[in-house]
Design brief:
Blueprint: E1 4-9, H1 21-32, E2 37-40, E3 46-49, H2 53-60, E4 64-65, E5 68-74, E6 81-86, H3 95-102, E7 107-117, E8 120-131, E9 139-142, E10 145-148, E11 150-151, H4 213-228, H5 232-243
Antiparallel strand pairs: 1-3, 1-5, 2-3, 4-5, 6-8, 6-11, 7-8, 9-10
């Protein structure tokens, strides 16, 4: 069942978080009881966490909080987790067959990690599983094999247009920036410079280098998000607190 929900006011001029905290608490307790957690989001919405299926079911039916009409929807990412298993005995199995057999254990998607070498795509033993749980299981049983599950920490998303992290080129509003020399108005495919410079940190490497301190920082933030089940803003704030 879904544990995390977003409560949104149907009146865009009156965010639900602007209502009295006492009235909000009373409405939520009437719906799900006293055992819940709630956070105010910067959007003006409320993020609520519940712990029982009955609470989840009741919350989805909620239409009014503090005399304000609301919509209640499951959070888009916090109700699922991704983990990795590594098993050589599955190297020849298709993603579809693995998914079919693991659905009863809460798996909703399967993706094998592949690598490219000399223009050849090579299948690996590493498989990314998406679970419909808010917390990752320690292990999963595949046929008669017990497979440990570790958290999947994806690489930071870097825009191929402006080279900044956190968005893709299709939604980019920045300038075309070379990933090699860091200058504007040309791509790395057309770069004639011989000296590398990162446009993110001004270091002597390409923007796509995994040695870049900005890449490492973004990777650490994603690791916090995944391992502690945080939103991106929460993970970024926590990383800032840790790093000073």
């Amino acid at each position: 069942f879904a544990k995390y929900f977003v409560i949104h006011s149907t009146d865009e001029k009156v965010p639900i978080s602007s209502k009295s905290v006492f009235r909000i608490a009373k409405s939520l307790e009437n719906a799900v009881g006293p055992d819940y957690k709630v956070k105010k989001l910067s959007s003006g919405d409320l993020l609520i966490e519940v712990f029982k299926k009955t609470q989840s079911d009741n919350l989805e039916k909620l239409e009014m909080v503090a005399d304000q009409t609301v919509t209640v929807t499951p959070h888009r990412s916090l109700n699922s987790t991704q983990g990795v298993i590594s098993e050589r005995d599955l190297i020849n199995e298709t993603d579809e067959e693995i998914l079919e057999n693991l659905r009863p254990q809460g798996v909703t998607a399967v993706r094998r990690i592949a690598i490219r070498r000399s223009d050849e795509t090579i299948r690996t033993k590493h498989i990314v599983l998406t679970f419909n749980y808010s917390s990752l299981p320690d292990k999963i049983t595949v046929a008669f094999i017990s497979c440990p599950v570790r958290a999947y920490v994806p690489n930071p998303r870097r825009c191929f247009k402006c080279q900044r992290y956190g968005h893709g080129s299709q939604s980019c509003r920045g300038k075309l920036t070379c990933a090699k020399c860091g200058e504007n108005e040309h791509s790395s495919d057309n770069c004639e410079k011989t000296i590398l410079m990162c446009s993110n940190c001004n270091g002597s490497h390409a923007a796509y280098s995994r040695q870049c301190p900005i890449f490492k920082k973004e990777k650490e933030i994603i690791h916090l998000k995944v391992t502690e089940n945080l939103t991106f803003p929460e993970a970024r704030r926590k990383h800032t607190q840790f790093s000073g």
